[in-house]
Structures are given as structure tokens and as C-alpha cells.
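User: Thanks for the earlier help. One more: Purine nucleoside phosphorylase. Can you show the sequence and predicted structure together?

Assistant: Of course, both are below.
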Amino acid sequence: MTGKILKESTDYLIGKGFETPEIGIVLGTGLGKLADEIENPIEAHYNHIPYFPLATVEFHSGKLIYGTLEGKKVVVMQGRFHFYEGYDLLDVTYPIRVMQMLGIKKLFISNAAGAINPNFKKGDLMLIEDHINLQGGSPLAFKNVSQFGDRFTDMSEPYDIPMRKCLEKIAKKKNITLQKGVYASVVGPQLETKAEYRMLKIIGADAVGMSTVPEVIVANHLKLPVVAVSVLTDECDPDNLKPVNISEIIEIAGRTEPKMIQLFRELIKEI
């Protein structure tokens, strides 16, 4: 990766009118409706942005949307990239670097995840406090990484504490159940076996998914404060495991999404 390539992507978006956004937002599986609430939107489809990967998952729509939300300039990724689509981790996280070059000062991430913690239920939201990277690689493992930030990036507190506290306060005020926990990121796209769910519980995971962690690592590399919320779409109880139903997962994500949108909108107001 080179600064020249990043600048070409950024210059294209600035030319489209993407000027100095304050907040970047990544929308996860089944969680695209926040984009509909953006005022005066300008869209850039991924296949038109120089050097951008293309979203290959059918329920990820694949565009960047710039506009105003709660009086602040935002840029929203409607459709993200996953390691399981055959991209390398530099591709997966490329949009985070572009959004940072556009000028964002904060990053919000959402995802759909499976609940490992038996006290969490499908339809709950979980504020990610920490994570376990089980993707077998790092988006910082490339030759000239030190041109973009510290090679040995500190990850002692990867999720921004002030934004987490703010989200907890908002959830309490709005009477929204917001669990807190550790997110494990696996490669996928296959779902986990019973034995794998048992292992995830043993190593301290409260939820499992196939995204987010590479983006968070890059945000920390760029010293970009980040906060992340999981929509828990299924309960991963190895003793009562049923076959996965992707359409049900998307449906639960859609049903829970308004609560997540409420949290993000209020957070935008307060920061």
C-alpha cells in the first residue's frame, strides 16, 4: 500500500463533495437503514472509487454515503469487506484509512454477531469492550506499515472509553438493553461447530462474528478513537444448537437496528 494510492481514492471522493466529515460509520450485516436518515446525501459506489475493493456479499450494498446526521458531517460505509470474501486484510481495512484521510475524528462500527454468553439473548445489543482476534493475521503486517503509524500498535484499550461511557449513559436514559462484553472475530464464512462455541466461551468471548477487529486494529494504528456495537442475532448454545438460518439472522438484525440507530444518533449529538 502507498500514500499515493490512498490519495487517489481520497481525491476522488473530495471531488464528489465528501468534504471534511467528522465521523465515520461502518454498518454491519442487515444494518443499512441508518444510511436512509442522512440529510443531503452524496453517494459513491465502491466500484467507482479508485482502488476500492468490491462488496461481494448479497446483503451488503457497497457504497459510501456522505451527508449530515444530527448536525454533523458523516461518511457511512453501507456494506463492508470481509476476510472470508477472499480479500486480504489490507483490502478489508482500506476504507478506514480513506475515511481517516478524508478527515474523520471518530469511528463508529456495528456488526451482527452470535451470543456466546448464555445471559445474552438474540435481539440484545452488546457494547464491545475488548476483542479476541482469531482471523489468523493482522492488517498491519505489511512492509511499509511504519509510514502510516507505529508498527507495534498498542492495543491495551482498543475501544474508546469516553464514547463507551457515553453510549452506556444514552442506553440507560433511553431504556435500551446494552450488554457489555468481548467480541471474538473468526474467519468464517462457515458458522461454528458445537466444540468451537465451547472453546470460544472458555477463552472469554461473549459474542462471535466475522468482522470488526481488523477495522479496529487499523483505527488504533491511525490513533482514531473507535466504538463498536454488536446486534446479537442468534444464541450460540452448544447444548441446544440448531441449524443456522441466515434469513432469520437478517430479520432479527433489522428488528433490532432502530435501537442501534438511536444510540448512534444520540452519540453523534453528544460528542
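User: Great, one quick takeaway?

Assistant: The radius of gyration is 18 Å.
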